[in-house]
Design goal:
The complex is a heterodimer. Chain A has 2 domains: 112 residues, NAD(P)-binding Rossmann-like Domain (Rossmann fold, 3-Layer(aba) Sandwich), CATH 3.40.50; 153 residues, Rossmann fold (3-Layer(aba) Sandwich), CATH 3.40.50.261. In chain A, helix 3 runs parallel beside helix 4. By secondary structure, chain A is of the alpha/beta class. Chain A is built from 10 helices and 14 strands. In chain A, 37% of the residues lie in helices and 21% in strands. Chain B folds into 3 domains: 72 residues, ATP-grasp fold, A domain (Dna Ligase, domain 1, 2-Layer Sandwich), CATH 3.30.1490; 124 residues, ATP-grasp fold, B domain (D-amino Acid Aminotransferase, Chain A, domain 1, 2-Layer Sandwich), CATH 3.30.470.20; 149 residues, Succinyl-CoA synthetase domains (Rossmann fold), CATH 3.40.50.261. In chain B, helix 5 crosses helix 6, helix 9 crosses helix 10 and helix 10 runs parallel beside helix 11. Chain B is elongated. The chains are: A alpha/beta, B alpha+beta. At the A-B interface, helix 4 and helix 5 of A face helix 8 of B.
Chain lengths: 298, 384
Amino acid sequence: MAVLVDQDTRLAVAGITGREGTFHTLNNRAYGTNVVGGVTPGKGGQDVEGIPVFDSWAQAMDSCEPNTAMIFVPPRFAADAILEAAAAGVALVIAITEGIPAHDELRVYNTLRRDHPGTRLIGPNCPGILSPGKANVGIIPASFFKEGNVGVVSRSGTLTYQIGNEIAQAGFGCSSIVGIGGDPVPGSSFVDVLELFQADPQTDLVVLSGEIGGSAEEEAAEYIQQHMTKPVVAYIAGFTAPAGKQMGHAGAIVSGSAGTAAAKAQALEARGVRVGRTPTEAARIAVEVLGGAAATSA
Amino acid sequence: MDLLEYQGKQLFARHGLRVSSGRAVTSVQDAVAAAAEVGYPVVVKAQVLIGGRGKAGGVKLAADEQETRLHASNILGMDIKGHIVRTVWIEHASDIASEYYASILLDRSAKKPLLMFSVEGGVDIEEVAEKTPEKLIRHHIDPLAGLSREEALQVARQGQADEDILEGVADALLALYEVWLQEDATLAEINPLIVTPEREVKALDSKVSLDGNALYRHPENQSLSDSENEDPLERRAKEEGVQYVKLDGNIGILGNGAGLVMSTLDVVAQAGGAPANFLDAGGGSNAETIKQAVDLILANPAVTAVLFNIFGGITRCDEVAEGLIAAFGEIKPTVPFVVRLDGTNDAAGRRLLAEANLPNVHSAATMNEAAEKVVALAAGGGGS
């Protein structure tokens, strides 16, 4: 088991014919992900290294039945691509695209809830999902992770690699690594992914990597206290970020007193979640909590 | 992207929200001319992106030319919490019967626009929310359906706006939603929304933030924002497409990925150092980007040491090393560098750096070690 992507994944990619889209699609296929098609309007009938390209998601669905969509199109086309994939019946949409207008994200989120409740969106502005040894959908450098029992969920890409790498060096592997993205209106929240890890038999512990802005970490803290029996270790980035300044991610901006790293760490700790002050410390705590479990899972 | 008061009011006016007529000016002479045009009495208002203008003396009433001259010359050039006033807004003074509050913001938890309204305007709204929450009406708008006239009226009624101006308040709320929607705003706030003795409903102030990601849909808004008060290095970074935020310390920071860079700032601070900037070189940054970034970091004279913290995913460590080597060839930095390279092609990157044998460049195996090293070097008084 793992969460969201695995051997049963049938991936199709919006924007497969673009430079980045092609590169990462082939990377994902090389990892072992079952890539069944791509969608680029006007390029139907072509192929990318043997992967058939379709004009629309409806056509892709008719021909190769993808159950997972990866969105790699430019920001101004991304919202419609996500909704088109959902309308065609794709159950999981992973949007890598960065820079989608917040109002488009609102429209997508609320339209999915209303019209396509069977479709789950991860991202946008996220590195994707990797289930080591099974499938990789997105841009996570898979070579740094091995298979194991730690679930990772994060708003940041590179920070995930940092923490995942430290866990790997300590001898542990990951069930799945899920990047939910750094935008103000992500399709899935920490809570959504925590729920999946709680139900996943391969996952024994979850590392949650958050950052300043919004209240997703506080909501996660509440959820963990009420619903999680598996241990969760957290890390929060942005203690030194000044208020009112956007730190790269559109979601990472502190307004007023809400959304600070200190408030988030406090909310988590108050509900029994241990919070590492550095990525290294978070990884160390995770390893400490797992303790002897290493031997059984290795 | 935050707008100045007068820029926000111009957007309000564009969508039918009533505002007083006024002029934005940058000199005392123009202030006097503008006052004559809009008619006395006038209000002279400092245009800066910071609250507390009134308390700082940045908002003054002028009854005649002499007072306009006096206030404009005092306010222009004034330093309000680090923001220098370069523009004042001259508007015809309004008579006020009541001060209300209205705003629409993106509620990230509910994932819907949140409309807020209160008849307790003109004051700190956080205080109203805390002390008398029943007086702050909160209404989530369905972004797929929009805001209906019935909803707007309901909010006005629920907030106990005066009976005779319920329609006027609803008009203002509907116009505010149009601003929010049509201009791709993430925040549109009016405090105060006033009722005049003639029972007109008007926006006396504005606070508007626009979504930078949506600017391509609004070419007319691209020139807005407080570019004069923007830090020159931040402006340059924006032009070069680099994510850079200037901070108060002396340790220059470069990393890849917003989360990792934020984390690097924290780890440096925990090691006792003070970061001079946030700089995200981005995913897939190449040698040229790295060179430009080094140039940008060193353009801040406060920097006494620099930390490179790279975990390569899409970014290749050998490209980063090449960029750093190229930067040393051209810029010849005099401050020490600490470089931590991990991830894609890290061995090749480390080898390139070792072979180049750059002066005063130190390598570190981990993020924590890198932070400790750079803090020690920065305290040592920089390069020698």
